[in-house]
Design a protein that fits this description.
about 200 residues; alpha/beta; five-stranded parallel β-sheet; binds flavin mononucleotide; EC 1.7.1.17
Length: about 200
């Protein structure tokens, strides 16, 4: 791998694996972005969900690394792997369908697994500090009726907040929102936002 190789982490959260607006937009963006470039593409498809954190996971996470049992280390393995891909990525592209005014459960499970004190964020005397710095993220958001960026769109605001919390503050939102009203116009807006993002 040369120094100029960019690493892209793609995260898909739609439970629709075929006819999915967020998947289509994410593919369109990544295909254009990587055309003629040397790219390492990492991918997490959350269509089938992820394990939910539980008491054993939380306890393992709160146990200092050097004191963890083998079982606790094993419990954290999936989280470690998801975080390793985030750490490796220069660019993170996340498909975010709006489900019940928020994010799909699989994406929330991903957030729970990657938000780790002392690994992806830490508390300082000035408050929390994100540790995943120097990255750029793109959110590909789709909704049926909820206007993206409105006060009832908890999906976009939550994802932006969580990414910033772990240090990813450079976030561009591509929105195909209110698809149920005028799908063609909504998709056209999203595609033009992709062109703008690629030109930036
Ligand atoms: C379980 C579920 C809940 C949804 N909730 C909302 C919602 O709260 N607001 C909204 O505007 N659209 C809602 N939708 C519509 C989706 O946001 C829309 O179909 C979007 O295109 C889904 O992304 P995808 O095409 O990538 O699967 C919901 C869809 C599903 C399947």
């Amino acid at each position: 791998m040369t120094k100029n190789t960019q690493t892209i982490l793609r995260v898909d959260a739609s439970v629709r694996t075929g006819d999915s607006v967020t998947r289509d937009l994410t593919t369109r963006f990544i295909d254009s972005l990587t055309l003629g470039t040397e790219t390492a593409l990492l991918r997490h498809d959350l269509a089938s969900g992820l394990p939910l954190i539980d008491e054993a996971w939380t306890s393992a996470n709160f146990t200092p690394e050097e004191d963890r049992t083998d079982t606790q280390k094993q419990i954290l393995e999936q989280s470690d792997a998801l975080i390793a891909d985030l750490q490796a990525a220069d660019i993170i592209a996340i498909g975010v369908p709006v489900y019940n005014f928020s994010i799909p459960a699989g994406l929330k499970a991903w957030v729970d697994l990657i938000a780790r004190a002392r690994v992806t964020f830490r508390y300082t005397e000035n408050g929390p500090e994100g540790l995943l710095t120097g990255k750029k993220a793109y959110l590909f958001v789709a909704s049926g009726g909820t206007p993206v960026g409105s006060e009832i769109d908890f999906a976009t605001s939550y994802m932006k907040h969580m990414l910033a919390f772990v240090g990813i503050t450079d976030v561009t939102v591509i929105a195909a929102d209110q698809m149920a009203m005028d799908a063609d116009a909504s998709l056209a807006r999203a595609k033009s936002q992709i062109s703008e993002a690629l030109a930036a």
